[in-house]
Amino acid sequence: MYLIRPLVAAVALALAFSANAAKPKPAPAAKPAAAPVAPAELELVHNLGLLGEERLQAFVDHFNKDHNGSIKLVRTTKDGKPAGLNLVRHYDMDDVLSKPGNFIPLHQMMGKAGQSVNAADLSADLKAGVVDAKGRLVALPLVYSTPVLFYNKNAFRRAKLDPEQPPKTWLEMQGVLDKLQDAGYSCPYTSSWPVWVHIDNVSAVSGVPAMTDKGQLTFNGLPQVKHIAMMATWQKAGYFKSFGRRDEASARFNEGECAMITTDSREHTDFREAKGVELGVAPLPYHDDVYGGRQSTLADGASLWVGAGRSAAEYKEAAKFVSYLLTPEMQIEMVRSYGQLPLTAPARAAVGSKLLQDGDKTLQVANASLNGNGAKPAVRAANIDAVRIIIDEELEAVWGNKKPAKAALDAAVTRGNAVLTAKPALKKAQPF
Q1: pTM for this entry
Q2: What pLDDT is recorded for position 13?
Q3: Domains and CATH numbers, the chain
Q4: Span of the secretion signal (predicted)?
Q5: Mean per-residue pLDDT for 150-176?
Q6: CB within 8 Å of 240: residues ≥ 6 apart
Q7: pLDDT tops 80 at residue 25
Q8: What whole-number distance in Å separates Cα of residue 423 and Cα of residue 417?
């Protein structure tokens, strides 16, 4: 009897334990879902004009929407510190670019973000100043062009000139300008970016570079003096009109006021809707009395630089944006939108196809003008702000009939070399 009670108690306890064990355990409380991590906001500064800014904004918006990006487009300010990404023409940031601590090489940033960019995949003509001694990309040469001659075919017809036969040499051009003036054009010819076109590129086409490999200015030789002296006589005769140091002249051509202009090839996209202008394009004229004949023009423009001191998340976002820009679809669209020289093989192939041609031969003319030598030399006079200002001052003295060509170019070389001696870092194409 006494033995039964403990046994019953034990069985009851066992049954109670078994019943409790059979009950399902309550599910653990669900953890709240992790909030999606917002991408690091990254500024992309630029110094493009209003139209270029509008086009770039479209690319940024597309990236942000389709790739969960957070790129913010900002206009650059003079002497401003670099942002995470900087799309700038070299001459607007030469002092900043001369300081290595401001930037990190593009290849380094891409590598840390687990992405790659191969310099060998990009056009050799566009690598001036954006590759290091080992051939690695330190910046992306994104919106590049080379000087060409644009002309209004309607103006040629009005002057009884063959619209399919633009002048090949500067000597031929003088006869064309005379006929355009007789036909009523008060501005037969103008030029944007005078230092880039008439110093760096006229020198290059003549086979006498404006700067040595060591960064000494040498554009006061006989070919350059003869060219600027010719331009001075055109100014006096009313054949040539100067409107400013940058692209002010482009608006005069776009409005139909000027019949011909030498400027960057990428501007053909801006001239498509020009009033009363049927656009013609030809290589930059050359001087046929220079030994060695016509040489190549140079390529330059806006390149993408990576600012130093950013977080790993910001660099990851930057690398993602660079990879996006280098996709075949975006490269072709950028060429179509900006008129830039094609950077990658798919974009170069598209230039010869109906995809980008549309009856416009500008890119074919521009690529032929480079002839594979658009990146030599790496340093250009027009890309050094202080030097370019000096040259512009001296050229304006020539256009104003205040100095002869030789005295002005001699003074520009002397003054410019003094600046480069005082600030040798400016001689470097890039800071690394």
Answers
A1: 0.88
A2: 33
A3: 42-144+299-370 (3.40.190.10), 147-297+384-424 (3.40.190.10)
A4: 1-21
A5: 98
A6: 177, 188, 189, 190, 191, 231, 234
A7: no
A8: 10
